[in-house]
Design goal:
alpha+beta; Jelly Rolls; 8-stranded antiparallel beta sheet; 4-stranded antiparallel beta sheet
Length: 280
């Protein structure tokens, strides 16, 4: 069981860290599965780039369909001016997602490790339901910046909303693009919302509030070792810089709601074919 300090920190600051929550041995199966997904990815067939720096205008049908699939996305800096890879494939992937917990046995087993249910119970979820998973590479030298954002902009759900869990697959620090968060920022307004409609089937990012994003005096780096978990509220502003170091910063993320929470029809991510992935 997690102690009261964990829950108190989460309530006050909007996030909490569980150091060394899983072992290196427990990480190995999904590292291996991730490698196979990249090996099997046909880069000639799909050259969808993932970037957050252009108001999400690069979203496409391949991205939307990843809600119930496992799709790979390239780093923006991995393509030359003619759209060809400028580096080996395994160094060009930004991330893949978003249904590994449903479709890849190694990821499904990992997501059922007891620590995830324990963490969700500690923040108030009785029956957590897992909606999406992502494996993020943050490649050396070109791992892209992820701009300041709030997850509630992209995963719209009624209260108690969505809780994110960020698993450090490798050590993360300021040199290779660790997370930055704004303690207490979960109490700030929701600034944007990304909506998918019949008129905009790949989504449009709409501004809701002009509250500035945090600056350097308000944000703190979340430097953690491999196997640590960062649990955070969907209103928490967070960011990571470009990785300009020679080492990657791989991470695995999960997003949960309380079972039965209303899920907006405007969300880009919809589970139409897959049954709910419930922790119990």
């Amino acid at each position: 069981m997690l102690d009261e300090q964990f829950a108190d920190h989460y309530i006050k600051h909007g996030y909490a860290v569980i150091e060394n929550a899983v072992t290196v041995e427990q990480l190995k199966p999904i590292v291996s599965a991730a490698g196979k997904i990249v090996d099997d990815f046909d880069v000639e067939k799909h050259r969808s780039v993932f970037s957050t720096l252009h108001q999400d205008k690069d979203r496409d049908r391949y991205f939307v369909e990843s809600a119930e699939a496992v799709h790979c996305f390239l780093e923006e800096g991995a393509l030359d001016s003619e759209g060809r890879l400028n580096r080996p494939k395994n160094q060009a992937i930004n991330k893949f997602g978003h249904a590994m917990h449903d479709l890849v046995p190694e990821f499904a087993a990992f997501c059922r490790l007891p620590i995830f249910l324990t963490a969700m119970r500690a923040v108030g979820f009785a029956v957590p339901e897992l909606w999406q998973t992502m494996y993020i590479f943050k490649q050396p030298k070109i791992g892209g910046e992820v701009r300041w954002h709030q997850d509630a902009s992209y995963l719209i759900a009624d209260d108690p909303g969505v809780v994110g869990v960020w698993v450090a697959m490798e050590d993360a620090d300021r040199s290779n693009g660790c997370l930055w968060m704004q303690p207490g920022g979960q109490q700030s307004p929701l600034r944007e919302i990304f909506e998918v409609t019949d008129a905009a089937p790949t989504g449009v990012l709409r501004q809701l509030d002009d509250t500035p994003w945090p600056d350097g005096s308000q944000a703190v780096p979340i430097e953690v070792s491999a196997g640590s978990l960062v649990v955070f509220d969907d209103r928490m502003p967070h960011y990571s810089s470009q990785n300009q170091s020679a080492k990657s910063r791989q991470a695995f993320t999960l997003h949960f709601t309380e079972s039965g929470t209303a899920w907006s029809k405007l969300n880009w991510l919809q589970r139409r074919q897959l049954t709910p992935f419930v922790l119990s």
